[in-house]
Amino acid sequence: MTRIAILAPYDKAGLEDLALNLAEIGFEIYSTSGTQKYLIEKTGLAIESISSLTGFAEILDGRVKTLHPAVHGGILARRDNPEHMAEIERSGIRAIDLVCVNLYPFRETIARPNVTEEMALENIDIGGPTMLRAAAKNYPWVLSVVDPDDYDAVIEALKLDLVPAEQRKALAAKAFQHVASYDTMIAGYLRDSTFPQELTAGLEKVANTRYGENPHQEAAVYSDPTPGRVPGLVDAELLHGLEMSYLNYLDADGALRCVLDFEAPTVVIVKHATPCGIASADTVALAYERAYASDEISPFGGIIAVNREVTWDMTEAMKGKRYDIIVAPSYEATALERLRKRRDLRILRLPESARPGSLEYRSILGGTLVQTPDTMRGEDVGLKVVTKRAPTADEIAQLRFAWTCVKHVKSNGVVIAQDFATVGIGAGQPNRLWATQHAIEHAGDRARGGVAASDAFFPFAKGDAVEDACKAGVTAIIQPGGGNRDEEAVEVCDGYGVAMVFTATRAFRH
Description:
Layout: E1 4-7, H1 15-25, E2 28-31, H2 33-43, E3 48-49, H3 50-54, H4 69-76, H5 82-90, E4 98-100, H6 106-110, H7 117-122, H8 127-137, E5 143-145, H9 151-159, H10 165-190, E6 204-208, E7 220-223, E8 237-240, H11 246-259, E9 266-271, E10 274-280, H12 284-294, E11 302-306, H13 312-317, E12 323-328, H14 333-339, E13 346-349, E14 360-364, E15 367-371, E16 384-385, H15 393-406, E17 414-417, E18 422-426, H16 432-443, E19 451-454, H17 465-472, E20 476-479, H18 486-496, E21 499-502
Parallel strand pairs: 1-2, 1-4, 2-3, 4-5, 11-12, 12-13, 19-20, 20-21
Antiparallel strand pairs: 6-7, 8-13, 9-10, 9-11, 14-15, 16-21, 17-18, 17-19
């Protein structure tokens, strides 16, 4: 019995060879009008129209072509069910063995400038997904082929007259995923709710990584293919070095998120997803020097993120220091040439429009947490002076800088800063006292004359974190306020002549 294939992909890549091979194997090929014309011109094969299979002409400007029992009955009939086979025979329906479809270019359409909703709606495929789903549902007998990269393997199996069950199942899974991703993009385009009742994420794999956080774990990196989405780390161009690992992505993302929060030339150094140095200055070279001076032990093998072009002077300052990654929007030619001499350094060039995305996802057991990103920087928060002494203009600027830094430090987080550079960071502690003590210990004498930022309110003051900070010599403190002992914290600061401001908002990062 002659086997039947329906070929109706929008993307014609590799289609000619597929058709020629199917014809050689003995398939009878049917196509929709556009694909039929294309294949006849390119291959000279006798390609039949879908209308000849259905006995019904295409209608509604081609909106209805394949939505017909002669198509879907032929796809969905179970070959191991005698009643199914008898029924399609009585109805004059022929069994269909292969469906090759990929879908209208909805993504490309909505990416066009000035695209209208009418244009978008016209590029929503209906017949294609319906055929793919039907073929995938009936995968033990019908091949659903959506990816041109699979054509060769399908032809090879058909020539042997043996398509293994696992291959059929894999093709079906790919078809369902393709349709699901397509529908996800359409839903995202049409919806106006940030958190709909049902939410899917249509992602495309960029690469497998060698392993996950540890060698016994598997991992891959995916991108969001939605047109117009905010560019980020996944879009960075690898200019030099080995492919990125799972931890490379994680650490570089932490550094990048932090550096993008600053307007002035800024350098961030991260180790194990935690900032160990952040500094803003007139030049990136000076910013790097001050960021490195914040903690001269932790940066070894760390990640550098820069929000300006990397200069020769900055690379001069980096001499003798080992890093795994540097990410920046651009590099001076001489700086790039010099950095490329470092065999173990990954050099990433970031899209200039990169910034935090619209939603953040974090997996939990059995589910996913979704939130909007924390885009509030030090410049954005309102400051309420609660002490007798108000901070000076310079202290306010330093406090806003420190607040922007502390929002990128794992909670409980405390930052001590001076001259727009961190000098002490206390990160990821189970209580705020330890976080403050760690920041003070790291800062040493540099705490004197600096400012302190806490990502949440101080629960205690006398004999605790606030008093420790005052004793260390900080001149001003920024914190959310809102604790039951706020008055005690104010009293301690007043006793030391330290200015304190409340933000009325916290900056947790777990």
